[in-house]
Specification:
Structural class: mainly alpha
Distance between the termini: 68 Å
CATH topology of the largest domain: Growth Hormone, Chain: A
CATH architecture of the largest domain: Up-down Bundle
CATH superfamily of the largest domain: MFS general substrate transporter like domains
Number of helices: 16
Shape: globular
Radius of gyration: 22 Å
Length: 415
């Protein structure tokens, strides 16, 4: 028994080592990300049903005000990032998490559209603030390997959402106010628990200069703003697997409908297994920019393949879909990993929070725009729309290399 247990135990340790960061602040961030994403997964899956069936809001009202509140929340990104630069990322992040916990718990008390809008807006402001403050914390914890740590945290995020999927399914099947309230309460508790865990993180001293010349410097850094735009374009891939592809398969292809349920789990498992491995080797911004080109090519190939599914019989179409999902996931991983390296490498050390807050805002705007754009392109235009979307993503990937060289020249120029 001992002889057979030892190799399996060693294999388990190797598997954990390939996913977990080294002991220390990075691992604390990993576990907090896992817990937080689990809470968010429960909330995102069940909250809309709670607000419709238990609070009495109309679905159109929820969709409209979630969008408006999300846009208002972006206002906190850059200012809070600057606060983190000046006064310390850990403390800023903990405060933002506490506000997120209170706002999420406050949703349990909403009984009208007005109270829902007020509380959800506060929640989005806190979410934008925590995202901006978290960036410098990841940079400090990861050091020269911050992009690799960010990739590991992405696996934790995917894993957390996946693990709570069955729990959310049970709550939906029960379909009672109490079941939905438990899901929201767990999300609020996850924020509070993460805030407690982050207090163990080392203090990151403020480094931002106080001179007038350094105030809001991200707005004058045109190469970095171009990177923000590139990232916003790359975010057009956001609704492909969860929103558009299921409709495309069901309405326009002969692929069996039950396959739809496997798309997101397969993508998630591949991200967990491959994210860290495919993120290695990007040790400079220029190397990361070149990987972004590969990401654009992979995404174009996968989307073109998806677009042609409607012209194939059932079995070849299913095989082509499986291949497309694998290629798409590789492109998704490459694009995320390269933007991590570029976002850290092209931002000045003394203004990480401010710059990463701007990048986070660009990501959010890209995601908000993506649902209408991608739905119109892929479901209305059809096969050509999938190819156009792929060309758009390839164009963003190709722009990364000249943008990175532009940023290098700007950084090398004398003040």
């Amino acid at each position: 028994m001992n002889r057979t247990a030892t190799p399996s135990g060693a294999a388990l340790r190797r598997a954990l080592a390939s996913v977990l960061p080294e002991r220390g602040p990075g691992r604390d961030l990993y576990w907090s990300t896992l817990i937080n994403s689990a809470g968010n997964g429960l909330f995102l899956t069940t909250s809309s049903l709670y607000f419709v069936r238990c609070v009495g809001l109309a679905p159109a009202e929820i969709g409209l005000w979630l969008t408006v509140s999300g846009l208002i929340g972006l206002l906190a990104g850059v200012p809070v990032g600057r606060i983190a630069d000046r006064h310390g990322a850990r403390e800023t992040y903990v405060v933002a998490l506490v506000v997120e916990a209170l706002a999420t718990a406050g949703l349990l008390l909403t009984r009208s559209l007005v109270s829902f809008v007020a509380v959800i807006t506060l929640a989005f402001l806190a979410a934008s603030a925590s995202s901006s403050a978290r960036g410098p914390l990841v940079r400090a914890a990861g050091g020269e390997r911050a992009a690799e740590l960010r990739s590991r945290l992405r696996t934790a995020m995917n894993l957390g959402i996946t693990l709570v999927g069955p729990v959310a399914a049970v709550a939906i099947s029960v379909d009672s106010p109490f079941a939905y309230q438990v899901m929201i309460a767990f999300d609020a508790l996850s924020f509070a628990l993460c805030a407690l865990m982050m207090r163990r993180m080392p203090h990151v001293p403020g480094t931002k200069g106080t001179g007038e010349g350094k105030r809001w410097q991200v707005f004058s850094d045109r190469p970095y703003l171009a990177l923000v735009g590139i990232n916003a374009v790359m975010m057009q891939q956001f609704p492909v697997l969860t929103l558009v592809l299921p409709l495309w398969i069901s309405l326009h292809t002969q692929v069996p409908h039950w396959v739809v349920g496997l798309v997101v789990p397969v993508n998630t498992v591949l991200v967990v297994l491959l994210q860290v491995r495919l993120s290695r080797g990007m040790d400079t911004p220029l190397s990361a920019a070149r990987v972004m080109v590969r990401a654009g090519l992979a995404l174009l190939l996968s989307l073109a393949l998806i677009g042609f599914l409607g012209h194939l019989p059932a079995v070849p179409a299913t095989v082509a879909l499986a291949l497309a999902i694998v290629v798409y996931t590789v492109g998704e991983i490459w694009s995320a990993a390269s933007i991590y390296e570029l976002s850290f490498g092209l931002a000045p050390a003394e203004a990480q929070g401010e710059y990463l807050g701007m990048l986070s805002n660009g990501s959010a705007i890209g995601r908000l725009a993506s649902q209408a754009l991608v739905t119109a392109l892929c479901l209305t235009v059809g096969t050509a729309g999938w190819i156009i979307l792929g060309l758009l993503l390839l164009g963003a990937g190709l722009a990364a290399v000249p943008t990175t060289r532009w940023a290098g020249r700007r950084q090398a120029a004398p003040a």
